[in-house]
C-alpha cells in the first residue's frame, strides 16, 4: 500500500479545484471562472485498492493586495509542509518558473492543464521540452481536468512518487472538512458564479445554524457578510429576486451534497472592510 499527501499549487484560475474534483469523481471544491475562488486548504482523500492519496487543494498564488489575500498565499505555501509530492499546475501558454523554484525539497510534477483548448498540439510539445530542461522536475503531464484527458497518467505518476505506508484516513472519508464547511463553500461558489466583477470578493459565508431534524428538513441559517452597504443591496437585488435565485441554486446543490432536504435561511450583513481586518478574517474561518 502507498499513502501520502499531494499538494496542488498554481496561479489562480488554472483549474486546481477542478482537478481535485475530477480525481475524486465528486464535486467537492468550489469552481468558478473567476480567479481566487478557493480561499482554504481543502483535503480530498482518494482511496483505492493499492493507495491512499490525500490531495490538497490550495488558493491560487498571486500578488496580495489586502490582508485576506496575504492569508490565502500563506495557506497555499503552508500546504507544502509535509507533502510528499507537489503538482504545480500551469496553463498551456505560460511557464511557471517562479513558482517551481519556490517548491523546495518536494518532488514536482508539472501539470499543463486545459489542453482541450489548444487547436494545435505543437506548442505543447515545445512547452513540455522547456519544463523537462528545468532541474528538480520529475514529470510533465499535459491534462484536461475538464474532460479527464491525461488524468489516469497523472494519477499513476503521483502514486509512483508516494512512499509505502498505511492509510492516514479510513477509506470512506473523502475530506477533512465537514458538511457545514461545504455548505458555506457551495453558497460562496454561487456568489462567484452569479454576481459580476468585485462582488464575490467582498463576501464571506458563515453557517450560523445547522439543525438536523428526525423528520422534515434540515434547517441551515447562513450569513453572507459583505464589506459595504452598497454591496448588500446588489446581492439582495430588486425585491430580493437575485438573492432568491442564488439561494435556490445553492439549496439544490446542498441537498444533493448532503442527500437530505433542507430549508436554507439566507441573511446578508455588512461587516465594514472585513477583508483588511485579521480578526474578522479569522472569525470567518480563514487561517493559514
Ligand atoms: N477548458 C477548460 N477549462 C477548465 C479546465 N480546468 C478548469 N477549467 C475552468 O477554469 C476555471 C477555473 O477553474 P478552477 O478549478 O476554479 O481553478 P482554480 O485553479 O481552483 O482557481 P482558484 O481557486 O481561483 O485559484 C473554471 O471556469 C473551470 O471550469 C480544463 O481542463 N479545460
Ligand atoms: Mg480553486
From TrEMBL:
Q: Where is this region: G1?
A: 10-17
Print the keywords alphabetically.
Answer: Cell membrane, Cytoplasm, GTP-binding, Membrane, Nucleotide-binding, Ribosome biogenesis, RNA-binding, rRNA-binding
MF annotations from Gene Ontology? GTP binding; GTPase activity; ribosomal small subunit binding; small ribosomal subunit rRNA binding
* Region G4, annotated ranges: 113-116
**Positions of the region G5?**
143-145
For binding GTP, which residues are annotated in this chain's numbering? Answer: 10-17, 57-61, 113-116
Span of domain Era-type G: 2-164
Q: Where is this region: G2?
A: 36-40
Give the top-rank taxon of the lineage listed in the UniProt record for this protein. Bacteria
Question: What's any one GO cellular component for it?
Answer: plasma membrane
The primary site where this protein sits is: cytoplasm
Q: Which residues form the KH type-2 domain?
A: 195-272
The UniProt entry's GO biological process terms, in alphabetical order, are: ribosomal small subunit assembly
This chain's function reads: An essential GTPase that binds both GDP and GTP, with rapid nucleotide exchange. Plays a role in 16S rRNA processing and 30S ribosomal subunit biogenesis and possibly also in cell cycle regulation and energy metabolism.
Subunit details: Monomer.
PANTHER family xrefs = GTPASE ERA, GTPASE ERA, MITOCHONDRIAL
Instruction: From the Swiss-Prot or TrEMBL record, give the protein name.
Output: GTPase Era
Q: State the organism named in the record.
A: candidate division WOR-3 bacterium JGI_Cruoil_03_44_89
**What's the gene?**
era
